[in-house]
Amino acid sequence: MNAGTFLRSTSLLDDTFFEQTVIFITEHNEKGAMGFVTNRLFPRRINELVEFSNCAPFPLYEGGPVDQEHLYFIHQRPDLIKGGDPVTAHIHLGGDFKAAMQYINDNTITEKDIRIFIGYCGWDDEELEAEIAEGSWELIQESQAALF
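Above: the chain's sequence. Below: its structure in token form.
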């Protein structure tokens, strides 16, 4: 499995955090895997967080149960947001968040360009492969789970 893969939870994960989730894998290597839940909106927008109260109202997504004290983002505007790591040919992870927020506030980039997450999903080496093998996750085509 590579970065850029989409996974959908199966009924084995019902009654857990991952019930009916779609995950976008952003990193996969010998240390493990990292990804974000892409289909669960966070109940507040970014301007409802104290440190971003002066920002435009922009949706946040519940990225995962790990490190919910921090924001993460993926985007498809490396021409504007520098410093991100390529995940696929079109999607980058992270980068200059201050610049990203400026572009959101002045409407240069929109929800069609960027997704901001609270927290992430993480797996140790071989852990995600074991969950796929046991039937907890199924791989899905990108066309069934478009981000932007």
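Residues 97-105 form the longest helix (9 residues).
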